[in-house]
Amino acid sequence: MEQNVAAAKTGSAEKAKSSHNYGIDLMRIVAMYMIVIIHVLNGGGVLNKEVSMPGRVIDVYILALVYCCVNCYALISGFVGYEKNKYGHKFSGFIYLWIQAVFYGILITAVFDIFSLAEVGAGKYIRAALPVTSYQYWYFSAYAGVVLIAPYLNMLIDKFDKKTAFTSCIGLTAALSLGSMMGAVFGKDPFAIKNGYSFLWLAVLYFFGGVIKKYELHQRLKSKKLWLAVIFNCVIFTGLSKIVIRNINIRTSSYFIKESILFSYVSPTMLIMSLAFLLLFANIKVDGIMRKIVKFAAPATFGVYLIHVQQLIYNNYIVDRFEWAAKLPGILTPLVVLGISLAILIVCLIIDRLRIALFDLLRIRKLSQKTDTLLHKAADSICSKVFKTFEKEQNME
After folding, report:
1. Same domain, yes or no: 85 and 222
2. Which class for 194: exposed (0-12), middle (13-18), buried (19 or more C-beta within 10 A)?
3. Do 135 and 284 fall within a single domain?
4. In what helix (H) or strand (E) does residue 293 lie, and over which residues does it extend?
5. Which residue among 64, 98, 107, 271 has its CA within the 20 to 30 Å range from the CA of 373?
């Protein structure tokens, strides 16, 4: 009997291990690399200072390719987070990420303070200790809202039939993506979606990712050539729109339509591209040495974001720090941008792997799980007392 139980546990563990999608893990790494590229190109001052016309065109198309990165990350959350018939709140994963964000925020602030690398006051430490409410990292703050409603999103995905789910996806796309783009023409934000820098947009993408997983669209639509073609055409169209609108605006001295209108997380091309990336990477088989690299890097990708976007690092070592690259001849600028971004990615990955080792030593994962359990017990106790009080009042009446 015990042998059968042990065999069953081993079998289920092996099944879970074999069903793990390393293609999605690879997508996490690629998406984070894309995020770093955006920060080097835009924040680093390269794109606005580019003097070479061929280099500028290439930079625009690189930006068009990578700009869907945040959408990719949010889609992954839904794809991985949705589980059939599981609606309960589970905060242990978010608590772990919160501790990680606080760890990096306070550590980096202390380093800048001790070595006088920048002016650091008490406010910096307070912001670092409260990463969600202080909006230290916009994505993390928005993601906190998604975590709170994820069980309800999972319930909707589970209860919706195929027609309702797909109709909802189409309706949300029409309203939030197309609607927001049309509003942007008039300089308005009709749904307060902030070009995708919002909890609402991340929640919608979570829903999309969950629907894809539920109906196994990645298994039904396996054509890599199709998704590569979709991505290619979206990049060409998005990059061309910026170049054409810019030339029209200059010649007519009219700036009614912003040249970067499609360079928004909510734009249709960015949404389509991110969906194509998800369906593409979900079907990529990762084996051999590549799997080892993915296993090493994937758990540390969020750390890359927390490190290089931490305000003291970003403001002092990234903002306008790469303008010199824009003055390089020919197509050398895009190559340097890609190289600098890769270097930032690798350095931050190594740092976060050291952080993971430290957290494992301190059993932070177990602490997160215990905290989650305590929160659930406290919530159950409060709800129980409230219900009892309510019942007593009803009986007295």
Report:
1. yes
2. middle
3. yes
4. helix 288-297
5. 107
Amino acid at 6: A
In angstroms, rounded to a whole number, what is the distance separating the alpha carbons of residues 279 and 218?
5
Residue 286 and residue 258 in one domain: yes
The amino acid that residue 255 corresponds to is Y
Closest CA to 27 of 81, 64, 68: 68
- What is the per-residue burial (b if ≥16 Cβ within 10 Å, else e) of 215-254? eebbeeeeeeeebeebbeebbeebbebbeebeeeeeeeee
How far apart, in whole angstroms, are the C-alpha atoms of residue 225 and residue 222?
9
Contacts of residue 299, defined as CB under 8 A and 6 or more positions apart, other chains included, come to: 356
Do 388 and 266 share a structural domain?
A: no
For residues 301 and 282, what is the distance between their CA atoms, to the nearest angstrom? Answer: 18
Across 200-204, 297-301, 370-374, least confident range: 370-374
Greatest alpha-carbon span in the chain: 84
**pLDDT tens-digit profile of 105-159?**
999 999 999 999 999 999 999 999 999 999 999 999 999 999 999 999 999 999 9
95, 126, 142, 203, 249 from 75: Cα distances, Å: 21, 31, 14, 9, 35
Over its C-alpha atoms, the chain yields an Rg (Å, rounded) of 23
Q: Kindly report the backbone phi and psi dihedral angles of residue 305, in degrees, each rounded to the nearest multiple of 5, phi listed first.
A: -65, -50
Does residue 221 come out as left (phi exceeding 0), alpha (psi in the -120 to 50 range) or beta?
beta
Q: Report the half-sphere exposure of 119 (CA within 13 A, side-chain side).
A: 0
Would you say how long the chain is, in residues?
A: 397
Q: What is the DSSP letter of 188?
A: -
Domain of residue 328 covers 23-365
Spacing of C-alpha 322 from chain mean position: 24
What pTM was computed for the model? 0.91
